[in-house]
């Protein structure tokens, strides 16, 4: 029986006119264009009345004049995944897919996400924060020592590994922080967890099978995600049934804790002792041919087109979305 056998099936007509919103003007525009075009094609194959809508090229008021009934958000990064677009659509009284304003804003900010998880006792790596307004390069040696001398540097509010670096010295740390400041005024400095990386997709409150990623790159960076063919994906991921169940429970708890709803993805590392550490949440994950959510959905018995319809269905009754 499919994991999604209990998901309500909708007729194409029930969705009305759908705007697939993609593109935008964030640093992740190219990925968003690929995701959006793939999703739009799927909806058209399913006979949904769907149109493309790029907010970088059209005012949002065109959604009203186009008589759009709902929006499927495929914007990645700032302006589409951080709560601002969700708030704008709520003001326009147009239903949309995925997580509402609060959860979107929290998930987009890696620092605040970690603080929520930490406050709830959920496992996450040790970290420090570098603030551009008061950063002191002289503290890099102490930070390296505190975080185990191997550190991931991440702009707080970027996705797709943009601006990220893995460092092993105070000099590298200072340079990586300065580079990350080009993307954000706050930078997350996170203890590097040595071990495999996993991701768990959550659709309508259900965790899909985990995926384990393996790359020859220093870490799972932008090129490993979207450009190279050297990255390997394992689904099933090789975990025991007990570990898989634990990771699914941890991921859904982590997603719920930041007010995530509808659909999304949680990224996790596993150390040498088998312990899992939450990395970050994604409320509008990629939907390209290389993307992780479609890979997991396929193993769960859901085709790409069925997955897209399940995502679109999250635009119904947003107050009760799980």
Automatic annotation (TrEMBL):
This is D-alanine--D-alanine ligase. The keyword Magnesium applies. The lineage of its organism: Bacteria, Pseudomonadati, Pseudomonadota, Gammaproteobacteria, Alteromonadales. GO terms for molecular function: ATP binding; D-alanine-D-alanine ligase activity; metal ion binding. GO terms for biological process: cell wall organization; peptidoglycan biosynthetic process; regulation of cell shape. InterPro entries: ATP-grasp, ATP_grasp_subdomain_1, D-Ala_lig_Van_CS, D_ala_D_ala, Dala_Dala_lig_C, Dala_Dala_lig_N, PreATP-grasp_dom_sf. It comes from Alteromonas naphthalenivorans. Keywords: ATP-binding, Cell shape, Cell wall biogenesis/degradation, Cytoplasm, Ligase, Magnesium, Manganese, Metal-binding, Nucleotide-binding, Peptidoglycan synthesis. Its cofactor is Mn(2+); Mg(2+).
């Amino acid at each position: 029986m499919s994991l999604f056998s209990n998901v309500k099936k909708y007729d194409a007509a029930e969705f009305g006119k759908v705007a697939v919103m993609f593109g935008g003007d964030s640093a992740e525009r190219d990925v968003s264009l690929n995701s959006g075009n793939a999703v739009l094609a799927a909806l058209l194959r399913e006979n949904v009345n769907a149109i493309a809508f790029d907010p970088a090229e059209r005012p949002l008021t065109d959604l009203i004049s186009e008589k759009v009934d709902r929006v499927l958000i495929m914007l990645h990064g700032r302006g589409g995944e951080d709560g601002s677009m969700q708030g704008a659509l709520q003001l326009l009284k147009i239903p949309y897919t995925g997580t509402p304003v609060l959860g979107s804003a929290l998930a987009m900010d890696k620092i605040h996400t970690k603080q929520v998880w930490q406050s709830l006792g959920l496992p996450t790596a040790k970290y420090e924060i570098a603030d551009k307004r008061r950063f002191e390069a002289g503290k890099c040696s102490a930070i390296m020592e505190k975080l185990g001398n191997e550190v991931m540097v991440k702009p707080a509010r970027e996705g797709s590994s943009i601006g990220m670096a893995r460092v092993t010295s105070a000099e590298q740390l200072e340079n990586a922080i300065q580079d990350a400041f080009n993307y954000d005024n706050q930078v997350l400095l996170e203890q590097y967890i040595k071990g495999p990386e996993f991701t768990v997709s959550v659709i309508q409150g259900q965790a899909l099978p985990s995926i384990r990623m393996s790359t020859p790159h220093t870490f799972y960076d932008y090129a490993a995600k979207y450009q190279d063919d050297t990255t390997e994906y394992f689904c099933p991921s090789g975990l025991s049934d007990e570990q898989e169940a634990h990771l699914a429970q941890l991921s859904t708890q982590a997603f719920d804790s930041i007010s995530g709803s509808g659909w999304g993805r949680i990224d996790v590392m596993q150390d040498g002792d088998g312990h899992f550490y939450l990395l970050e949440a994604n409320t509008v994950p990629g939907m390209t041919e290389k993307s992780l959510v479609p890979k997991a959905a396929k193993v769960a018995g859901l085709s790409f087109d069925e997955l897209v319809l399940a995502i679109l269905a999250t635009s119904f009754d947003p107050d009760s979305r799980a």
